[in-house]
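Open question from group meeting: does this chain pack into something compact, or does most of it stay loose? Before anyone orders reagents, we agreed to write out a predicted structure and look at it together. Recording both the input and the output here so the notebook holds the full record.
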Amino acid sequence: MAKINRIPIIRLYGNLIVSIQVSLSDKLVNQLKDDITEAVERSDAQGLIIDVSGVDVMDSYISRALRDIGVIVRLMGVSTVISGMHPIIAMTLVQMGLDLKGMRSALNLESAIEMLAETRRVETEMALEAAVP
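Structure tokens returned:
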């Protein structure tokens, strides 16, 4: 079986989408953090979706790394939505006292795309209203 060195980052509708469908190691999470920040820097993406529907186990290191990614890209001007979290993982994060601050969540990838589209629509309306004397 081939070893996965990187998780693909897909650009769609002005968003970067990262769909994690493999077991995460500390090394892979660190590589993902670097890859995402480089992709945000190179693109004009307005949103980042991290889909964790394929993640069966999320320890404190992985959840903190995902939170860090959300904070980093927010500082770069990009909104982050995490989608597809299994209920047992959500319950475990709560029990561990971990919070994915700065990241909104959505039930699935489709909802996450809609959420970011709505955010852009509202921001555009607000900018237009602010521009009108």
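Observations to bring back to the group:
The two ends are 63 Å apart (CA to CA).
Residues 47 and 62 are 21 Å apart (CA to CA).
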